[in-house]
Amino acid sequence: MTLDRFSLTGKTALVTGSSRGLGAGIALALAQAGAQIALHGSQAVPESTIAQIHNTGVRHIQLVGDVSQASVCSTLIEQVVGHFGTIDILVNNAGIIKRAPAVEHSEEDWQQVIGTDLTSVFRLTQIAGKHMLSRGSGKVINIASLLTFQGGVSVPSYAAAKGGVGQLTKAFANEWAQKGINVNAIAPGYMETDNTEALRADPQRARQIIERIPAARWGRPEDLAGAAVFLASEASNYVHGHVLVVDGGWLSR
């Protein structure tokens, strides 16, 4: 049956940056589809997020660590495999953003954003990929952005990182597609998260954004649920190197 191909029962997923926001929404969607979940945050995962996953009835653990550190990336994968025995799905969602005009954007901010938003994607995919390659199956979902396609304003490091995420997605897919591993990405549009709080608090900028979105609203974490489950499931077995845009129609204008 077609719907059976969307089931994630028996699969194990690590969703980085899943304490709240988009990551928590994706983790909940995968859990509702049947996957065992490794939640992750740079600090302890909030009880509210843990409770949502617990209520689905799937096995779950919570992990903590700064993914910009190479040792943390290795440890996270080791913890997931050690606890569940495998890792079937990796969602590279952890990310930060630093806002400043390009001429004022500091070297420190550049390094922090690139390390968290891009380098961690390479490291975690490489490490998890070794487990996936050994058995010839696996799903990697990178969280890209509209700035994978556009330059943005006052976020040069974030734009560079997300542009790189799009290219990394294609590079890994080119090597691994024939080996049974799907590497794809989701590019969310303007979403109601901590990263966009400053934009939503600016009446003029918030109005400009809404006027540009055909759907006439900001996205919410649950808007990514279908895309995430699809790319994590057998239903997407012939989808490789794709960046799936979920943006309310933003890029169509």
Textual characterization of the structure:
- By secondary structure, the chain is α/β, with parallel strands linked by helices.
- The chain has a single domain, classed as NAD(P)-binding Rossmann-like Domain (Rossmann fold, 3-Layer(aba) Sandwich), CATH 3.40.50.720.
- 42% of the residues lie in helices and 15% in strands.
- It is built from 8 helices and 7 strands; from the N terminus they run βαβαβαβαβαβαααβ.
- It has helices spanning 21-32, 47-54, 70-84, 107-135, 156-176, 197-200, 203-212, 225-232, and strands at residues 12-15, 36-41, 60-64, 89-92, 138-143, 181-188, 243-246.
- It has a 7-stranded parallel sheet with strand order 3-2-1-4-5-6-7, sandwiched between helices.
- β4, α4 and β5 form a beta-alpha-beta unit.
- The longest helix has 29 residues, at 107-135.
- The chain is globular, with a radius of gyration of 17 Å.
Output the number of helix runs.
8
CATH topology: Rossmann fold
Alpha-carbon Rg, integer: 17 Å
Beta-strand content estimate: 5-15%
Total domain count: 1
Global shape: globular
The N- and C-terminal alpha carbons lie at a distance of 37 Å
Helix proportion of residues, in percent?
A: 40-55%
Which architecture would the CATH scheme give at its second level? 3-Layer(aba) Sandwich
Biggest sheet, strands in spatial order? 3-2-1-4-5-6-7
Going by helix content, strand content and strand pairing, the class is: alpha/beta
| Average pLDDT figure | 97
Classified in CATH, the superfamily is: NAD(P)-binding Rossmann-like Domain
Number of strands: 7
How many strands, what sense, and barrel or not for the largest sheet?
Answer: 7 strands, parallel
CATH class: Alpha Beta
SSE topology string: EHEHEHEHEHEHHHE
Poorly predicted runs are: none
